[in-house]
Each structure stands twice: as structure tokens, then as C-alpha cells.
Amino acid sequence: MPGDMTMPGDMTMPGDMTTRQEHGHEAPGGDGPRPLRLVLADDERMVRTALRAILGAEPDMEVVGEASTGAEAVPLIRALRPDVVLMDVRMPEIDGIRATEQVLAGMPEPPRVIVVTTFENDAHVYDALRAGASGFLLKRSGAEDLVQAVRLVARSDSLLFPAAVRRLAARHAGERAAADAAAALRARLSGRERAVLRLMTAGLTNAEIADRLEVGAATVKTHVAGVLAKLGVRDRTQAVIAAYECGFVRPG
To answer: Which residues in this protein are found as 4-aspartylphosphate (predicted)?
Structure first.
């Protein structure tokens, strides 16, 4: 696999990613795993070239399309129906936040979106996560971290860089919090669902939550699905954002 991405930026990858071993998605007809289909959206050709070189070298991944603006990315993603999109948060015409919103709103089975950014605490990253992105990557991330991030987001049973997401939520959630939202959330969730949500915000995977609560993995999966449905969100990242914004989880 190629070495680190040669990409603009001055930050390194947060060091709290969960490692996973499962590769690929199940092919139609049950013929075994197929490569993850990826679309790259970034206005810098050098960045797209670096991403393609790293991800395209993986046997369980296939780069099926590229876009240089958000306006190009939205129809391309709708047409190609990839599994994962790497979306630059700052692009001309339509930025990565609006492009993410449009993609997730306009597809019955939308892809997972990873926003790519230079600065971890950028408010634009937080807005992209609120818009539905499943996680973010810092530019100049190591090749191994990039590959693991794509696989982790595709699997969707744990949070990508949980500590970094918590820091973002803690920094920005107070600006948008509603006064009685925490009580409303508690009333909406069962006691076990509240316990699961708290452990999700701590970055635990389904397997780790099962160990902590001394229940089966299938039970945890059911509770996670219940939390997402009751909060009206599509994945763990948005659940964590919602927990911070309503005050269910406090910073610190």
C-alpha cells in the first residue's frame, strides 16, 4: 500500500480510531463480498490522485468516480450509488455540507459520507456531521488510517474517531441546544436505550457495549436501531451530535 497521502494541511489524524477486520460488502445474490464502491469529491486534483492511489490499491475497494465540485458530486453520487463518499468540506459552487445534505435527502439508500478537512475543530466539520456525514478525516492522514476509516464507516457499527467527534460536539453543541430537549429525549428512550446511547457517545463499539451491559451483540444492535429511530437519525455520529445538542450528554 502507498505511504502517507501527499495532501495539503497541517494536522495529523486523531489517534482514536477503532480497528476492524471485516472487508467488503455482500454482493447481490449472496456471491460473497464485493469491493466497496467509492466516490471522491475534492477540488484539488492532487488530493484526488493521492486518495485514488491509496484506496484503489486495496483489493476490497474500487474508486468508481471523481468530482471536483459539490455541484458535480451530487448527480454523480446519485447515478453511481457508491457505498462511501469522501467529500471535501470546502469546495466551489456547492460546498461539502450542502452536497452531503442533498445526497442524503435525495437517495432512498444513501452512501456513507466521510468529510475531508484540514482542521479537526473546524465548525464546518461539525455542520457536515449534523447534515448527515458519518465521520471526518484530516488531510495528510496516513494511508493505513485512511483505509481503516473507509472500512469502519462502511461497517457502521462503531463511531469513527469518537474522541474527536466528542470534542467537536462539546465545542459547538451549546450554540444550538434547546432548553428542555434533554428531558424530552429521556422520555423518548427506554432505560436500556439511554444506557446504550451514553456508551455510544463514549465511542464504544457494539461488541464493547454488549460486554459492558452483559447482553448479547444482537440485543445491542436492536437497542442501537431503536435509539437511531427514536432520535430520527441515520447513524451513530448523528446520535452523538443529538445527545450533546439536547444536553443529554454534557461536555467534560
So the answer is: 88
Instruction: Return the exposure string of 191-222: e unless at least 16 CB atoms fall within 10 Å of the residue's CB, then b.
Output: ebbbebbebbbbbbbbeebbeebeeeeeebee
pTM score: 0.66
Q: In this structure, what C-alpha cell is assigned to residue 168? A: 467537536
- Beta strands 112-117 and 135-138 are parallel
Distance of CA 243 to the CA centre of its chain: 16
Give the separation between CA 17 and CA 111, rounded to whole angstroms: 20
Q: What is the SS3 assignment for 20? A: coil
Cα separation, 80 vs 92, in Å, equals: 22
**Strand (E) positions, the chain?**
25-26, 33-34, 36-41, 61-67, 84-88, 112-117, 135-138
Q: Which residue has the higher pLDDT, 72 or 33?
A: 72
The domains of the chain, with CATH numbers, are 36-155 (3.40.50.2300), 177-245 (1.10.10.10)
Task: Pick from 34-43, 120-129, 138-147, 229-238 the range whose average pLDDT is largest.
Answer: 34-43
Residue 35's closest CA among 83, 76, 72? 83
Rounded to whole angstroms, how far apart are CA atoms 21 and 26? Answer: 15
Query: Does 27 have pLDDT greater than 50?
Result: no
Closest Cα partner for 42 from 1, 11, 82, 7?
7
CB 213 within 8 A of CB 172: no
